[in-house]
Amino acid sequence: VSDGAGSAPLSRRGSCIVASVGVKSLMELGERLLKEPDALNGRSQVAVEGFAAVVQAIRAQIGFEAEFIQKLRPDFQAKEMYATFLAALVLPTPDGGQILLTYSAGDGAIGLGLAGDAAGLKCVPDHGQSAGQTLFILNKGAEDAYKRLVFTRLPERYALLLMSDGVSDPLIAHGQEEKSETWDALAGVLMPIVKAEPLTDGDVDKEETHKEKGGLCGWLDSYQKGHHDDRTIAVIF
User: Fold this and answer.
1) Least buried of 5, 74, 185, 189, by fewest C-beta within 10 Å?
2) Is the four-CA dihedral 61, 34, 153, 160 of positive or negative sign?
3) Contact 119, 184 (CB under 8 A)
4) 68 with 62: CB under 8 angstroms?
């Protein structure tokens, strides 16, 4: 999940790069980790270095495009593509279980609900000193996987939720982010909505017009005064 900075003119493109390069790089990292079973026993060095490399791959693509734009507009700066980065990698373990690796750079939230003792916040939130201020993937520190990578052993039943701050801010009161009850309640609300969504055939993405929107899109579209930011959510039950 990636949310472009409202103050950055090309943040829409920046968030697109974060999502596309991020997914490709995460899939490659997942395949690498599956070939090294010891890397799945905990918060391994291989995983830490792998997530740092994912961030560097995203930065490299943003830098590449920024250099191209500068040929046409010399005053262009890469920060005009500022965007946040929320990622989750779910992998099977040799003993038949699953692990969750989560990573964040910026605001928004990643959490587990309906997961017993494992439920709760699964990211390191980055909030600035003033409203609308946060860390972005191009900022110093975003590549610090030692700080930002969270390892969790998943139970058989869980709800994994990744959301931009346009979703998390109006729903989760300050100070309630780390409580398992917060994520259990949110997952409980979302579960029937997600289950009612029509599934697509194969790998075809389902596209909806605003008029045809399903329950999840309608839930995201609910108006709340003072909250007009990008609303993006990724859910796994």
Assistant:
1) 74
2) positive
3) yes
4) no
Q: Roughly what angle, to the nearest 10 degrees, separates helices 45-72 and 11-34? A: 150
Query: With the CA atoms of 102, 107, 112 and 113 taken in that order, what torsion angle do they form, in degrees rounded to the nearest 10?
Result: -170
In angstroms, the Cα distances linking 106 to 49, 109, 115, 190, 194 are 19, 9, 25, 24, 26
* Rounded Cα gap, residues 115 and 130, in angstroms: 33
- Using DSSP's 3-state secondary structure scheme, residue 39 falls into helix
Q: What are phi and psi of 192, to 5 degrees?
A: -65, -30
> Among the ranges 123-127, 204-208, 221-225, which has the highest mean pLDDT value?
123-127
**DSSP 3-state of 112:** strand
Q: In what order do the strands lie in the sheet with 150-154?
A: 85-92, 98-105, 150-154
CA distances from 28 to 24, 53, 57 (A): 6, 11, 12
DSSP annotation of 149: -
pTM of the shown model: 0.90
Tokens of 141: 């520190």
